[in-house]
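Hey, can you fold this one?
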Amino acid sequence: MKVDPDRELVERARAGERAAFDQLVGRYQRRLLRLVLRLLRDQAEAEDVVQETFLRAYRALPRFRGEAAFFTWLYRIALNGARNAILRRRQRGAPALLPSQAPAPEIGTPESMLLSKQVMLAIDAALEALPLELRTAIVLREIEGLSYEEIGEIMECPLGTVRSRLFRAREAIARRLRPLLDLPVDQRW
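Sure. Predicted structure:
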């Protein structure tokens, strides 16, 4: 079992040291915001979910048993908050959000810049179209860089399920990119 790099800060925070919890917030706030923003596609809503995540974590800290790494526990709280936000959005009948209009990198020819922008928009659209479980898995792996084991802990599912979700997410994204990249059907990218 790996040693949790946050163990000392968590113990100090559990003992009532507010500055230790503030350090944990500083360590994970941007990562959580990036994750939740990728899932919700709304800055204000994502910020609310992240703030609520830290409030819930602070209140639940005395019950944190340390069986999982602190950050996986925190990610799980954030993912549950994002799921709840999506459910609330659906209950309100809110429309689906459009993929972000991320700017293309400013390198190369105008044609390559246009293609880069089209590819980025296609990836965003493909991510948006994925079911939440697949989108969460691919964001945790490809954007957050987490291991399969960490993703399994966060999503509370076996390693085989993580592998399956990642495979299905990559295939769905590849299907959307094939026409844009002019790739054969049997080639992913």
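Residues 7 and 70 are 8 Å apart (CA to CA). Let me know if you want another pass with a different chain boundary.
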